[in-house]
């Protein structure tokens, strides 16, 4: 696992502050610049298309402000400046939310809180003075926090890290995570049954996930055969 995720705890802290925020932020910036470029090329007399593009750009701003990213305040100021260009009356020198619609302001505040909270929870799981069980509990707190963000990618990444320190414990609880998306859940169960082959319920859920995923009969039969072998050897708990 360390070959896949070789970062030290300190490096993970740095990663939590920068990785998703910076790279995702750059993507949002490029997306917005692209739509702004389209807007600038629309003929001034084509009011219908102009209005349509304004709505598109506003939607991008709103969506970006609802995501926990670095430099969110800069995005807010850019958004306010852009709205002023559209005729709104806003204070473009301040990061206050006066004049911003309540739903956008609420989403922005929530994203800002999440962005500021991650370094703290990263610090907790990186502490060297924690016992094995205490560190595991901190991982569970962090996982619960990430699950509340409803971002399966971040949840999966954190589980991968937890598996490095707690291979059996983490995989046994992994089946209850909100990762039931596409091939992700299949990979989760595949690894879970390899690491905890004695847990019968894992095999049951693995087979159910394969059926729900509409995989080939051959793949289901292969897993079923393995289950039968384990059952005959009385290896299930």
TrEMBL record:
An annotated GO cellular component: nucleus
Superkingdom of source: Eukaryota
Primary site of residence: nucleus
Keyword annotations: mRNA processing, mRNA splicing, Nucleus, Repeat
UniProt-listed GO biological process terms: mRNA processing; RNA splicing
InterPro entries to which the protein is assigned, alphabetical: TPR-like_helical_dom_sf
Residue spans crossing the bilayer: none
Subcellular localization(s) per the UniProt record: Nucleus
SUPFAM superfamilies referenced in this protein's UniProt entry, alphabetically: TPR-like
PANTHER family per record: PRE-MRNA PROCESSING PROTEIN PRP39-RELATED (PTHR17204), RRM DOMAIN-CONTAINING PROTEIN (PTHR17204:SF25)
Protein name as catalogued: Uncharacterized protein
